[in-house]
Structure formats: structure tokens, C-alpha cells
Amino acid sequence: MHTFETIGIIGAGVMGSDLALDLASQGYRVILKDIHEEALEKAKVKIREDFKLVKLMKKELPVKEIEQVLSNIMFTTTYQSFHAVPFVIENITENWEAKQKVYLELQEYCQEDTIYGVNTSCISITKVGAILPRPEHAIGMHFMNPVPLKQMVEIIKGYYTSEDTIRMIKDFLKAIGKKPVLVNDSPGFVTNRVLMPMINECIWAVHDGVAAPQDVDKIFRLGFSHKMGPLATADLIGLDTILNSILVLYESYNDPKYRPCPLLVKMVDAGLLGKKSGKGFFDYTSVLAHSHA
């Protein structure tokens, strides 16, 4: 069984800091890299805050103290320490040009046999593999939010992904308490191919004046037993991320059913991005004020 002792994580946003917390609290050494020092400082604060909840929910954590969790994470703005990292998980923005730049940079620092986990909801794994020296080492890993508390991970087999890589990643995910589900490389995979149009259609319902956001969500919570309504889910993910994802689907399939609702575009233009900005379909300003107090 293959387990990696040190894992490189690229991107210290919500997903990257969640992953760093999840792995470091299970005893892994993590190198968390971001181009912005400010993002790394925010990640430290977020990891401190979130560890309280993770500790409460997961009684069997090997690492019990936050200081020990943080000591397992190296926060850096450079790739200097990546030469000895056997496994890298990349979580940057859903933008092909930005991802391409990262993978080309990584090749200068990482060993040839490094495995690359592409944590994406829409970008083609085959496309990433094609720019690597060893394309069989690229595999899609779509983690769910919040990472430490969600077991399911959608893993994606690109055109070149080898059976060895799949086996190694399945073993690794099982070792950290996750349940991998293997799917083939296709825009949006399964989760986002289904979730994004559903969220977009709910936004259309609001846009067309069919129902208010709270009522749309209430229907899904009470009628379909969803723990969280689609619009609250959109706010959690970030409306900019939702728009990026739906645009990738629209361009990939060339199908009008993926056309983003004008209300979604307008909200993103207005900076109403959901929980991270304080306002989206719902208001989080009191939650943000409380967390900064």
C-alpha cells in the first residue's frame, strides 16, 4: 500500500487550506504554496478556526493540538522545497491558462515520477496530462467542501492516467478516511455536470420571479432532504466559481442548456460572491463580523 509522507498543495484558498488542515491533522507533512503571502496568512487563520470544528466532529484524529497541526505545514511562496515531494495536489482557480502555468513551473522543480492530483471541478485531466513529461501521472481529484468532513472524492481518469496511478491514489484516499469514486474524464465529470445546471436553473427561477431564494432552498431541503439548498450551496462554493464552472461546461459542450443565468453574471460583476464576500443569495455579514471579532 502506497502512502505519501509529504504532500505539496498548490493554492491556499478555501480548498487548499482545508486540504492542508485535513492532511496535517492526520500526521502528514504538508507544503502549502501560494503566490500571495496574504493568502498564506489567511490560510493560517482559517486552519486555526476550522480545527476546532474538525476536532469536535472527528474524535479519532491522530493530531490533537492545533500547534502540532500547524507545525506539520510549511507555508511558502516558492517551489524550492518541491524537489522531494512525491505527490502534489493543485487547487488553484478554474482557469486553464493559470493551471498550465503552474504545471509548467512544477516540472522545473519536481522529480519525474511525481504524481499530480488535479483538484478541479471542470478542467480536463487529459489536457493537464498532455503537458506533463509523464502524462500517466496526472489524475483528477475532486474533493467536496468542507474537505475534512466530506468523505466522497470524485477521482477522474484522464486519457493517459495509468492503473498504477489510480491504485496509488485510491490507497492514499482510503488511508485518509475518504471514499473514492472513479469516473472518466468528461467536462464537469458527474458532480458538476449535474450540480451546476441545477444551481443555474434555480438562479433562473429567482431571476424569472418564480420564487425567492429562501423558498427555492426550502423546497430542496424539505422536499428532497438536501442538507443545504442549492443557492446556499452556491454561496458556499462562491458565485464566481459557479460562473466559471458553468462557462466551462457551456464552452465544452456547446449546448445552450449550460448558458449562465444573467442574474448570476450580474451578481458576480457586483462582487456578490456568496459567503466569502459577505453577501450572495443570502447575507453573511453578521457571520463574517463575528469571525473577525
Topology diagram in text:
Blueprint: E1 6-10, H1 14-24, E2 29-33, H2 37-57, H3 66-71, E3 73-76, E4 87-90, H4 96-109, E5 115-118, H5 125-130, E6 138-143, E7 152-157, H6 163-175, E8 179-184, H7 191-207, H8 213-224, H9 230-237, H10 239-253, H11 262-269, H12 285-292
Parallel strand pairs: 1-2, 1-4, 2-3, 4-5, 5-6, 7-8
Antiparallel strand pairs: 6-7
Helix pairs in contact: 1-2, 7-9, 7-10
Would you write up a description of this structure?
The chain has 293 residues and is an alpha/beta fold. The chain folds into 2 domains: 6-184, NAD(P)-binding Rossmann-like Domain (Rossmann fold), CATH 3.40.50.720; 191-282, N-(1-d-carboxylethyl)-l-norvaline Dehydrogenase, domain 2, CATH 1.10.1040. It is 47% helix and 14% strand. It is built from 12 helices and 8 strands. It has helices spanning 14-24, 37-57, 66-71, 96-109, 125-130, 163-175, 191-207, 213-224, 230-237, 239-253, 262-269, 285-292, and strands spanning 6-10, 29-33, 73-76, 87-90, 115-118, 138-143, 152-157, 179-184. Strands 3-2-1-4-5-6-7-8 form an 8-stranded mixed β-sheet. Helix 4 links the parallel strand 4 and strand 5 (115-118). Helix 1 (14-24) crosses helix 2 (37-57), helix 7 (191-207) packs across helix 9 (230-237) and helix 7 packs across helix 10. It is globular, with a radius of gyration of 19 Å. The protein starts with 5 loop residues before the first strand and ends with a helix. Pathway: Lipid metabolism; butanoate metabolism. GO terms for molecular function: NAD+ binding; oxidoreductase activity, acting on the CH-OH group of donors, NAD or NADP as acceptor.
